[in-house]
Amino acid sequence: LAPLRYTGVTGAPFRSEQHRRVLAPGQEERVVLTVPYSEYRPHLGPQDSLKLVVTGTVLETQQVLAKEMRLQLTVPQLTLTLLAPALVGQEVPVQVVFQNPLPEPLEGATLRMEGSGISCPKPFSL
Questions:
Q1: Regarding beta strands 63-71 and 79-82, do their DSSP bridges make them parallel or antiparallel, or are they unpaired?
Q2: Rounded to an integer, what is the distance from CA 82 to the centroid of its chain?
Q3: N or C: the chain end with fewer CB closer than 10 Å?
């Protein structure tokens, strides 16, 4: 498991596991890999994803099997709600909702609103 930069460059792997299985003809086996946030957080930048590479070798034939997967992390959404009718030339109250999905507090977060009629957008500290 390794970080995949937004540029497409793979970072240094931060987790590797080996599993050995004996499978009967037609048998299927599942291996579950759980990666906690605390393990991958230090390796990811703001636009990075995770790259998972799985390889296997059939000992009897030395055939190598491989599969690669890019895990794009879901970015939380902002919800915007108008709290009053929007009338030309008048202020309109807007409610912005963001729920922190992380198991730790966010620090130093800011909200910036830009748009038509907003002459001087300023960041709002959260």
A1: unpaired
A2: 29
A3: C
> Tens digit of pLDDT per residue, the chain (126 long)?
999 998 999 999 999 999 998 889 999 999 999 999 999 999 998 889 999 999 999 989 999 999 999 999 888 889 999 999 988 888 888 899 989 888 888 888 888 888 776 766 778 887
Question: The whole model's pTM is what?
Answer: 0.68
* Contact present, 98 and 76 (Cβ < 8 Å): yes
Residue located via tokens 């800011």: 110
Q: Which two tokens stand for residue 8?
A: 């497409």
Going by C-alpha positions, the residue among 52, 80, 48 that lies closest to residue 68 is 52
- Cα separation, 10 vs 7, in Å, equals 9
Sign of CA dihedral 32, 50, 53, 18: negative
